[in-house]
Specification:
The structure holds two protein chains of two kinds.
Chain A (H helix, E strand, L loop, with lengths): L1 H23 L3 H21 L3 H25 L4 H5 L6 H23 L17 H12 L1 H22 L11 H6 L2 H4 L12
Helix pairs in contact in A: 1-2, 2-3
Chain B lengths: L4 H10 L2 H38 L9 E2 L2 E2 L3 H11 L10 H17 L18 H9 L2 H11 L3 H32 L4 H6 L9 H4 L1 H14 L11 H4 L9 H26 L22 H21 L5 H28 L10
Antiparallel strand pairs in B: 1-2
Helix pairs in contact in B: 1-2, 2-12, 2-13, 3-12, 4-6, 4-12, 6-7, 7-10, 7-14, 10-12, 10-14, 12-13
């Protein structure tokens, strides 16, 4: 138990540190990588809470797919950082007010309204054969079957829309027709001609 | 069979009980890692020898070990790479350039923690083992992207882009093939996936999921950037791809990670489609006979076959063109998996095949 507590604090410390790094790093590539570290540490913390499905899916979806694309974009874009940083200091008061409001709102909802003002105690121990994957699967495929399907359809529509918006037909491109290439036979291409030998000079 | 128990008890009495478990686990992890690296070392030798024989050459035969010509070649290579200087290009991003090889190496080794080598012999017997494998495999791409970007070279960046796009594309086909496996097993746990295939070679998954097996293996070859999908390295176009600027042990880490990944894909192919540590005589010989016992022997023996397949493919096929790779991944492999997942669903629903107990 001691060891787990130690691990929890170690990972939490790295998580918070990396989260600060995301907004403080000067190089956007570093920011993206630190965000990856954030995701990874929160996944580990979820794993320690026996929510292994959520933890692993966080790594699989966000680290393995979303952040790779982010990194792609950040690396390809040649952003002029000095231009972006100009006048940043002027926004500090507004940012502080917004951040303060959000912290207040989260505390209000989570601690005061939801928990009735008491702090969290130790969670009740889970049964030995508890499987986070199974429980989530049962919830998603029975009780929340329709919401899950609707979410899937919305995602599908969004991805089709993204493709349609960015698709452009360029004139003058000569793509290969694979079917035609495969159907090619020697008979159509080579003509064997029989001819008498020429007279030697 | 040799077990850890006596040594564990002895060591536990020496160390205070509190730290005994983490330390022993660390020792076991080290043992598996050294084992994997040794297999990888001789795999490189096997590659050069086998491809040599296929092309009527002798392969490496200068460095003798135990009077076997060529057997010491991997160790000679390691010594050579260890003594080479690790060059860092002047305009490279120094930090990321040094971190990238580790980011390639770590996921390649981390997946071994959920691989069961024999019944009940895995480091982490987690419920979502299959997902863990997918998640860790998807991390390998970071090392490639960062290596290509940090080197600040056009060739390296082109190689990294090609490799990353290829890995991301084939991961989907690979994931779908795994979905078929988990539908057949009814579980995400690797141990249970193997156990669900018991009953001889015809009840292993390859028989009913043959298209998925083919897709998985092809996607595995593409994931590891091996020939014929090695446009990421494309010697004739972009020198050596994302690791052009690496030398010495930094290059060796990419090299080791590639071969460890090949061994891993082979092991996973065996686990998903060829019954892992199950014996091929299981169900044909009486259950008490020695040959029908499940164990590490069968797992290792079966893993050698797909490993040989990697080398065979490399010696046989010319390199794909990039658009052909993308067409194969998106327009051939993914539709095949989708169709077969549907067929499998119908089979399960109609109680055809070995999987009768699910619904």
């Amino acid at each position: 138990m001691m060891f787990e507590t130690l691990l929890f604090f170690a990972f939490s410390a790295v998580l918070v540190g990396a989260a600060f790094g995301v907004i403080l790093a000067r190089n956007p590539v570093y920011s993206a990588l630190l965000l990856v570290l954030c995701f990874f540490n929160s996944a580990v913390i979820w794993l320690m809470l026996d929510a292994e499905f959520l933890g692993i899916v966080l790594v699989l979806v966000y680290v393995g797919a979303v952040m790779v694309l982010f990194l792609f974009v950040v690396m390809m874009l040649d952003v002029n950082l000095e231009e972006l940083r100009k006048g940043l200091a002027g926004y500090w008061p507004i940012a502080a007010v917004v951040a303060g409001l959000m912290v207040f709102a989260i505390l209000d909802v989570v601690v005061v309204k939801h928990l009735g003002g008491v702090s969290l105690g130790a969670a009740p121990p889970l049964p030995a054969d508890y499987s986070n994957t199974r429980v989530l699967g049962e919830a998603l495929f029975t009780r929340y079957a329709y919401p899950a399907q609707i979410a899937a359809v919305i995602l599908l529509v969004a991805s089709i829309a993204a493709i349609v918006l960015t698709l452009r037909h360029r004139p003058g491109v000569k793509p290969q027709n694979v079917g035609e290439q495969v159907r090619v036979s020697a008979k159509d291409r080579v003509r064997l001609v029989k001819m008498a030998p020429e007279k030697r000079p | 069979m040799w077990t850890w128990e006596p040594i564990r008890v002895r060591l536990s009495s020496l160390i205070t009980a509190y730290w005994a478990d983490p330390v022993l686990t660390a020792v076991q992890i080290l043992m598996v890692m050294i084992g994997v690296i040794l297999v990888m070392a001789f795999y490189t030798l096997a590659e050069r020898k086998i491809i040599g024989w296929m092309q009527s050459r002798r392969g490496p035969n200068r460095v003798n070990l135990f009077w076997v010509p060529g057997l010491g070649q991997p160790f000679a290579d390691v010594v050579k790479l260890l003594f080479k200087e690790i060059l860092v290009p002047g305009d490279a991003n120094k930090v990321l350039f040094r971190v990238a090889p580790f980011l390639t190496m770590i996921p390649a080794l981390a997946i071994w923690s959920v691989i069961p080598f024999a019944p009940q012999k895995a480091f982490a017997n987690i419920d979502a083992g299959l997902l863990f494998i997918l998640a860790m495999a998807s991390l390998g791409v970071y090392g490639v992207i960062l290596a290509g970007w940090a080197a600040n070279s056009k060739y390296a960046f082109l190689g990294a882009m090609r490799s990353a796009a290829q890995i991301v594309a084939y991961e989907i086909a690979m994931g779908f093939a795994m979905v078929g496996v988990l539908m057949a097993a009814g579980s995400l746990n690797i141990g249970r996936i193997i156990e669900s295939q018991h009953g001889g070679p015809l009840s292993w998954n390859w028989f009913w999921l043959f298209p998925l097996f083919v897709v998985y293996y092809i996607a595995g070859v593409a994931e590891t950037n091996r020939a014929p999908f090695d446009v990421a390295e494309g010697e004739s176009e972009i020198v050596a791809g994302f690791h052009v600027d690496y030398s010495g042990m930094a290059f060796a880490l990419f090299f080791i990670a590639e071969y460890v990944n090949m061994i891993l894909i082979s092991a996973l192919t065996v686990i998903f489609f060829f019954g892992g540590w199950l014996s091929p005589f299981d169900g044909y010989l009486p259950a008490s006979s020695l040959l029908a016992q499940p164990g590490f022997f069968w797992f290792g023996l079966k893993t050698l076959v797909p490993m040989f397949g990697f080398l065979w493919l490399r010696a046989t096929f010319p390199r794909y063109r990039y658009d052909q790779i993308m067409r194969l991944g998106w327009k051939a492999l993914i539709p095949v998996t989708l169709v077969w997942l549907f067929v499998e669903g119908v089979l399960i629903y109609c109680h055809v095949g070995p999987w009768k107990g699910h619904i």
